[in-house]
């Protein structure tokens, strides 16, 4: 996931603490006290088979929205694909760069390099929830993608449709919480409905046998017959624009 765009320098930042340690516990806490465990150890490890099933569907230059500690950006480099991660957390950006990836400390809603030219955009690890308003986020992604680009997005494992305010919580009970921020969770059915309502077309859905609890979709803004995601067997694509500029 991506850290919310908040003044972390003046508040406790359990997300940064977890990334520095490379492990949790870390949770999203709803106002009613319900806790959603976050997979910090997986984010800080290398890309797993489920991740690779997504990355092998990428083509051209890839933008990883909410890149976290950078495992996907690093794995894309190993596949020979140019990639840029964006995250509002300075610790996440620093870890991505140390892993050899390119990253910017920036919100997806701020100006970004190569707008309208990215061939692939990633929204994994719950990042469809960024900003708490999935239609707004999907509209922003459509501005970033090339006309024939593909959005690869991960849905929640359960059939849920939720928009709420949450806090990042270290589970200690000792005040290790972030300020509240808006977040959303969408299961497969809700994500499909939201995407189609925003003018997107679902071109593919799949799960990886190693992680059947992680459902993925490929989305296109073009008519279904005009665009499908590349097959899982290849990473080729059109000529790659030079998009990875400095901030």
Task: Describe this structure in a few short sentences.
The protein has 247 residues and is of the alpha/beta class. It has helices spanning 14-21, 40-44, 49-55, 71-78, 90-98, 134-144, 188-197, and strands at residues 27-29, 35-37, 62-65, 83-87, 102-105, 118-123, 145-154, 161-169, 181-186, 201-208, 211-220. 23% of the residues lie in helices and 28% in strands.
Helix and strand composition category: alpha/beta
H/E topology pattern: HEEHHEHEHEEHEEEHEE
- State the CATH class of the domain at 47-163 and 183-226: Alpha Beta
Say how many strands there are: 11
Distance between the termini: 22 Å
Helix content: 10-25%
Here the CATH topology of the domain at 47-163 and 183-226 equals Rossmann fold
Q: Please mark out the parts with pLDDT under 50 across 5 or more consecutive residues, or reply none.
A: 6-10, 223-239
- Count up the helices: 7
Q: Give the overall shape, derived from the CA principal axes.
A: globular
> Strand order of the main beta sheet, please?
5-4-3-6-7-11-10
Largest sheet: 7 strands, mixed
């Amino acid at each position: 996931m991506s850290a919310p765009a908040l003044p972390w320098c003046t508040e406790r930042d359990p997300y940064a603490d977890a990334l520095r340690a490379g492990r949790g516990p870390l949770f999203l806490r709803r106002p009613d006290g319900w806790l959603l465990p976050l997979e910090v150890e997986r984010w800080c490890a290398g890309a797993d088979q489920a991740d690779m099933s997504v990355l092998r569907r990428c083509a051209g230059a890839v933008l990883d929205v909410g890149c976290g500690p950078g495992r996907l950006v690093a794995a894309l480099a190993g596949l020979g694909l140019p990639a840029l991660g964006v995250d509002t957390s300075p610790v996440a950006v620093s870890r991505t760069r140390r892993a050899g990836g390119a990253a910017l400390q920036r919100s997806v809603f701020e100006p970004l390099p190569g707008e309208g030219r990215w061939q692939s955009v990633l929204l994994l690890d719950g990042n469809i929830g960024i900003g708490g308003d999935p239609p707004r986020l999907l509209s922003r992604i459509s501005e970033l993608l090339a006309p024939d680009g593909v959005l690869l997005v991960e849905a929640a494992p359960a059939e849920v449709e939720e928009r709420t305010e949450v806090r990042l919580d270290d589970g200690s009970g000792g005040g290790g919480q972030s300020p509240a921020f808006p977040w959303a969770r969408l299961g497969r059915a809700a994500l499909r409905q939201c995407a189609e309502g925003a003018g997107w077309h679902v071109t593919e859905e799949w799960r990886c046998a190693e992680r059947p609890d992680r459902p993925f979709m490929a989305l296109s803004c073009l008519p279904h017959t005009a665009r499908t995601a590349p097959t899982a067997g290849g990473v080729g694509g059109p000529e790659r624009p030079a998009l990875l500029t400095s901030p």
